[in-house]
Amino acid sequence: MTETAQRPTLEAVAARAGVSRATVSRVVNGGDGVREPLVERVRRAVEELGYVPNQAARSLVTKRHDAVAVVIAEPETRVFADPFFALQLRGISKELTAHDNQLVLLLTEGRDDHARVARYLAGGHVDGALVFSLHLDDPLPGLIQGVGLPTVFGGRPGWSGGSGAVVYVDSDNRGGARQAVRHLVGLGRSRVAHITGALDQTSAADRLDGYRDVMGDADPRLVVESDFTPGGGERAMRELLNRRPDVDAVFAANDLAASGALRVLREQGRRVPEDVAVVGFDDMLPVAEGTDPPLTTVRQDIEEMGRIMARRLLRRLDTRTADDAPAGVVLPTTLIRRASA
To answer: Is 249 helix (H, G, I), strand (E, B) or coil?
Structure first.
């Protein structure tokens, strides 16, 4: 049997660097007041010995856990089936990893999970939270604000109480929708329909508003409510063809719904784009480039949204850095033309 190697201690690092234990503690825990030559000696000793700080002890000194909760207000079946969430999580993870922070993922399957999530966030396990995919009647914002945990939200807040000082990151959903519909109108299409997302989310409501900005008093039968899923897009497209068989263009609230709409149009013998032009929203490449035909869509930088959310939270947690950015950051969108419109 071999003995397990003893874990290097703070005292061993101090002896190797030729400094006091207190000096090593300040360097390891990110404290100030240590001259740069001593900092370099301590870092070199840490590397040579393979010293790993005890996180519990470090938290007592820094009052930080170096962990951030990412709360997605959706069931896991939706989160793991929709590439939107993977892209946003990738952006968040890259930014947190670059700053040596851990990501703790929390999902909500239903109302019973809200209290569980709130208890966890109040328990002192994480330094802050990133929260997205909220619905208008979601109690999470109030629960989180009651905890007093620094939080950045993904998406424009739409719950009771308004946006106020709430910090959030979003895309220009309304402007992107206007781009999509203007493009379809510019192609000479006059019966432009809209398949919405879940209208209890501000992103879907904003995209519907953008559609109406361009179409004005269009026939209300041209708007069909959906839910951001391929199945929802299929159901909405069938309903739309029943309501208005003469529809000649469709703006779908996201790429997944657009993919469902394209399947129905193909089943019904409608040529795309000759008979019906289709535009989506998101530009998630595995979806937009994998449809038949490839999908014209509005690009939002989903991964960058995640990065900025994490960056803004880390700034709020670092009391030495003033976050003078506005409460809401809205990223631009771009129309990407492919074969569907």
So the answer is: strand
In single-letter form, the type of residue at position 149 comes to L
CA angle, 25 then 29 then 31, to 5°: 90
Indicate the pLDDT class of residue 20, thresholds 50, 70 and 90. Answer: confident
How far apart are the C-alpha atoms of 312 and 141, rounded to whole Å?
A: 18
Q: For 245, what's the count of Cα atoms within 13 Å in the CB-facing half-sphere? A: 3
The tokens describing 207, both together, are 């995209």
**308 C-beta neighbours (distance < 10 Å), count:** 20
User: What does pTM read for this prediction?
Assistant: 0.80
The pLDDT tens digits for 287-304 are: 999 999 999 999 999 999
> Secondary structure of the chain: what % helix, strand, coil (to 5)?
45, 15, 40
Cα atoms found within 13 Å of the Cα of residue 147, Cβ hemisphere only: 24
CA of residue 208 relative to chain centroid, distance: 20
320-336 burial, b if ≥16 CB within 10 A, otherwise e?
A: eeeeeeeeebeeebebb
B/e letters for 166-189, b = 16+ CB within 10 Å, e = fewer, are bbbbbbbbbbbbbbbbbbbeeeeb
Q: What is the CB neighbour count within 10 angstroms for residue 67?
A: 16
Alpha helices in 156-301 (DSSP H): 173-186, 202-215, 230-243, 255-267, 285-288
